[in-house]
Description:
This protein is an alpha+beta fold. It contains 10 helices and 22 strands. Residues about 1-20 and about 35-50 have low confidence and may be disordered.
Amino acid sequence: MVGIFSTLGNDPDNAARRPCLNHSLAFTLRQRMRKSTGLVGVVAIVAIAWVGATWYVGTRAQQTIEDVVAQANERLTEVSVPASGTSLEIVSYDRGWFSSQVVYTLHMKDADGAARALTMQDHLHHGPFPWSAVQSGKFAPMLAHSKAHVVATPATQAWVDSQQGGSPLTIETQVGFGGSGHSTWTFAPVDMMDEGDALRFSGGQLLVDFTDDFKSNQATGQFASLLLTNEEMAERLELKDLQVKSSTQSSNNDTVTVQSQATVAAFTLDEGDDSPVVINDMAIHFDSVQTGKLLDGTLRYDFGQVAVGEFALGSVSIGGKVLQLDMEALRLLAMEYDAIQASLGDNDDESAVVLSNEQEARLQERLQAVLASSPVFSIEPFVWKNDQGETRGSLQASLAQPAADGKQSVDLMLAQMLRQLKLDLAISRPMLIQAFGQSQGSADERARMEMMGAMVYDQYMGRLEQAGLVQQRDGTAILDLHYEDQVVTVNGQAMPVAEFMQRALSVVM
Length: 509
């Protein structure tokens, strides 16, 4: 610009044109300044809008997280064991313009009833485009981007120390708009000693997707190995290739459906007695449907191959089922029991505890509420298989609310509680004989044990058949028992309870 003005000033022929040219240059400069000013204004408006949007989304994120924690605690109250004391707490929430620092604590109790806490420190970046998410290559708009890690508490100090400055568990979560999200839980490998116990853990990952205002989720996880040993006691617990999968779906009619399963390729429990329990191809299934307070649930364990030392048991499946169980009434019963236990003080001998009439009445009232929904409990199925056959069984008990009379005897109350009972058994003679033989190593010892198994089966099943309590078909003893209204029906033959008890005692004596 300096060169242009110098040239124009030294040329006498341009003197006449100088005002015009100066006017043109001034106009051009004003135009450029207007554009620059406009651009600066746009940038300023965008920056202000960004800051305002981030602040607003930050408030939305805090409200959402507080609602989710309250929702989680409500769900824990509905489904967890009351004595577990499990709850989630927001210890602190320091919200800034672009990010927040949040501390959560999960409270629980261990097997001995002692309080334990798992605390997480969360650095939460606010949306709509959290900077931490953008840095990770995630450009989709979201409510917040969370990066949380475990911090040391008395219960987790050794776990945290084992990482030498790192975190044993980190959780990265994308909190989306509309109640959706994705969370990745990363467990670091662990190799540590704690009070004589040595723990080796391969680490692993758990992936969780949330939908429906965070009320529904899908989760999958995998862990290669876990080994817990105690050299002094010569004890060892080992899991290999653990995989978990879970689905929770909530509907508008206050119904929550849960489907979960876990598989373990190999499980070993060795208590130092030369008879380790080894289970291959283990699977655990849990399914439940809860509508309001009432829960229907099933739990099943499948063990592909079971061995105790050199004793090969074959495969075993065992399951349990509950229908129409009032979870709120059960929670209140457990709370009442805990309160009474606390008032009585520490006493290891529960048989020596004597309840007052008032305490018995309070427990009976709570029990009446549990039974008001007529719950049904069952063991189903029970299947034990080996190369020679299988034994099957099931037991179902339908309960009812007894008469609300505090003066009635316990026997009468129990009789009123048991509305219906069903028992089905099918015991295979060849299977039982082989199971006896598998308990020994040499061929001669196996043969002797098989002969003993055959003798035991024939003796007891013969006595039961003679008493009219079982039927034998093709090497299988069958029992089909049904109780209702003080009548017992055994394999199609009805009899009073007194007669059934007399027949059962004749076999035992």
